[in-house]
C-alpha cells in the first residue's frame, strides 16, 4: 500500500489540476487554484463584503414634510421607503409604502399630515453601519421583516435623552441583496 | 528539485487537508472534499436552484374585489403585492403597494374601486415558471424593477385572444432572494 501511495497522490493531484480545482505551480508545488478560490471565493467574498461597498444613496425626507411630499418622492425616486431626518439632519425615522398606505386609505386629510405622524420612529428603526457585513444586514432585514435599512454613523450632534444620534450615509435594500446574488453567479 | 517534489506535494496536500479543502480518503487517495464542494457548491447550487424549490404561497385576490379588500389582505398577509386572478382563477394582474398608494392618495372614493382598475395587467405582468432557475427570476426582478413575481403554469382554461392563460402556483420575492443569500453563507 505504501508503495502505491505516491502514484495515487500524483494521479489524484493530476485530476484536481485537470478539474481546475488545483493550479500547477511547478516551483512551489501545488496551491489551491482559481476554481477552488472562485468557488469558495463566492462564499468568502460574501462573508467579507461590507455594507459600504454596495450601499445605495439614501433617499431622505424631513420630518416636517407632508405625507403628500413623501409619496411624491417615493414615486420620483422609485424607492420602497424614505429615510426621515430631523432639523439637524439626524435619523428620525423611516416611512415605507406600507406606512403611507395605512395612513392614506380612506383618509382624504392624510396628504397634508406631517411625515412624522406616519413614520416608524426612533428606537424602532433598525439600522446598519457602513462597516457591518452585508450578511448581517440581510439577517436584520429578514429578522425584522423590513425591505430596507438606513446606513448610519454616529453624529456629532448632541445626544437626545442620552441617546446617540445618527447621520444617514446610505441605504441597504433587498434589491441590492438580489443584485449580489446575480453577481455571485456572474463572477464564477 | 525533482527530489524535493514528493515532500512538496505531500506537505501541500497536508495543508489542503488541514484547511479542509481536500478530504483524506486513504483507500482511493485524495478527492475534492467538503470545503471545496461547499465552496463551489454555493455557486453550483445557486445555478441549479429552481423557483419551485424556494417559492412562497401566492397571495391572491379576485379582480372584482375592492381596493379596500386588497389593502386589508396586503396587511393581513404582510406581503408587498397581491396576485389578481379572473373568474376562472387565471392570472389577470398584479397589484402592488405602489399601485394602491397611487390610487388611494387624495382619492377618498378609491377604497370601493375594483382592484382591476388599479392593477398592472395582462401582458405587462412579468412572471416565471416553477422550472425556471432562481437566478433567472432574480434577473427578471432586477430588469423589470419589480419586488415579486407570480409563479405560473399554463392553464387548461380556454385561451383569450389566442393567448395562453396561466394558473398561479406560487410567488417569488426579493425577500426569498435575501434568504437564499443567508443560506449560502450558513451552508458553508
Count of β-strands of chain A: 8
Radius of gyration of chain A, in Å, reads 25 Å
**Oligomer designation:** homodimer
Q: What structural category do the secondary elements of chain A indicate? A: alpha+beta
User: Beta-strand level of the residues of chain A, as a percent range?
Assistant: 15-25%
CATH H-tier superfamily of the largest domain in chain A: CBS-domain
Stretches of chain A where pLDDT is under 50 for at least 5 consecutive residues are 1-39
Mean pLDDT of chain A: 80
Largest interface: A-B, 65 and 64 residues
Share in helix of chain A: 40-55%
Number of helices of chain A: 7
Order of helices and strands of chain A: HEEHHEHEEHEHEEH
Give the count of structural domains of chain A: 2
Q: How are the strands ordered across the major sheet of chain A?
A: 3-4-5-6
Overall shape of chain A? globular
CATH fold annotation of the largest domain in chain A: CBS-domain
What is the rounded distance between the termini of chain A?
39 Å
Q: Mind telling me the CATH class of the largest domain in chain A? A: Alpha Beta
Organism (chains A, B): Paenibacillus mucilaginosus 3016
Protein name (chains A, B): CBS domain-containing protein
Keywords (chains A, B): CBS domain, Repeat
Domain CBS (chains A, B): 54-111, 119-188
Describe what this molecule looks like in 3D.
The structure is a homodimer of 188-residue chains. Chain A has 188 residues and is of the alpha+beta class. Chain A folds into 2 domains: 33 residues, no CATH class; 131 residues, CBS-domain, CATH 3.10.580. The first copy, chain A, contains 7 helices and 8 strands. In chain A, the strands form 3 sheets. In chain A, strands 3-4-5-6 form a 4-stranded mixed beta sheet. The first copy, chain A, has a two-stranded antiparallel ribbon with strand order 1-2. In chain A, strands 7-8 form a two-stranded antiparallel sheet. The first copy, chain A, is globular and about 55 Å long. The two termini of chain A are 39 Å apart. The N terminus of chain A is likely disordered. The interface between A and B is large, with 65 and 64 residues.
Amino acid at each position: 500500500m505504501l508503495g502505491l501511495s505516491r502514484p495515487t497522490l500524483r494521479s489524484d493531484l493530476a485530476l484536481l489540476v485537470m478539474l481546475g480545482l488545483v493550479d500547477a505551480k511547478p516551483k512551489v508545488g501545488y496551491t489551491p487554484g482559481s476554481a477552488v478560490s472562485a468557488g469558495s471565493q463566492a462564499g468568502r467574498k460574501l462573508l467579507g463584503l461590507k455594507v459600504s461597498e454596495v450601499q445605495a444613496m439614501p433617499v431622505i425626507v424631513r420630518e416636517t414634510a407632508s405625507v403628500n411630499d413623501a409619496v411624491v418622492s417615493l414615486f420620483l425616486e422609485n424607492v420602497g421607503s424614505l429615510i426621515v431626518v430631523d432639523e439637524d439632519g439626524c435619523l428620525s425615522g423611516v416611512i415605507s409604502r406600507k406606512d403611507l398606505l395605512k395612513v392614506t386609505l380612506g383618509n382624504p386629510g392624510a396628504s397634508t399630515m406631517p411625515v412624522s405622524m406616519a413614520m416608524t420612529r426612533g428606537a424602532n428603526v433598525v439600522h446598519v453601519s457602513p462597516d457591518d457585513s452585508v450578511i448581517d444586514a440581510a439577517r436584520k432585514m429578514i429578522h425584522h421583516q423590513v425591505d430596507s435599512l438606513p446606513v448610519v454613523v454616529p453624529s456629532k450632534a448632541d445626544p437626545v435623552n442620552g441617546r446617540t444620534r445618527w447621520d444617514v450615509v446610505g441605504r441597504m435594500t433587498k434589491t441590492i441583496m438580489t443584485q449580489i446574488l446575480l453577481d455571485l453567479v456572474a463572477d464564477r
